[in-house]
Write a structure and sequence with these properties.
Layout: H1 12-30, H2 33-44, H3 51-66, H4 75-84, H5 94-109
Helix pairs in contact: 1-3, 1-4, 3-5
Length: about 110
């Protein structure tokens, strides 16, 4: 190994794996209907959503759960982990995860 090489523990694959795990943990929280309804009520003042819309949201969340990470959406976080070589996810990054899910929520709330 060349002494000028930097051996980082955060490879591209590991970074994406971490981001995907965090995203999927959040998705799993929202698959609990009580948590989903509470979030929509508190953040969007949606007090009632039909069971059909709830099921469509949950279906889309399950599809997102198995999909790869949208690297464009998470690029700032990916770059931050790469540059700092740490997996410290700060509160300032939390909105990135919610924003991705809110796109799904809004698709059904206002339809």
């Amino acid at each position: 190994m060349n002494l000028n090489e930097v051996n980082t523990q955060w490879t591209e694959d590991r970074i994406l794996e971490l981001v995907r795990k965090l995203r999927n943990d959040l998705i799993k929280d929202f698959l609990d209907e009580r948590h989903l309804k509470e979030y929509l009520s508190n953040n969007f003042r949606v007090s009632e959503l039909s069971n059909i819309k709830i099921e469509f949201i949950k279906k889309d969340l399950k599809e997102l759960l198995i999909s790869p990470v949208n690297t464009n959406h998470y690029q700032v976080l990916i770059d931050q982990i790469r540059e700092t070589d740490t997996a410290g996810i700060s509160e300032s990054n939390e909105p990135l995860f919610y924003k991705e899910l809110e796109m799904i929520f809004k698709r059904y709330m206002f339809a």
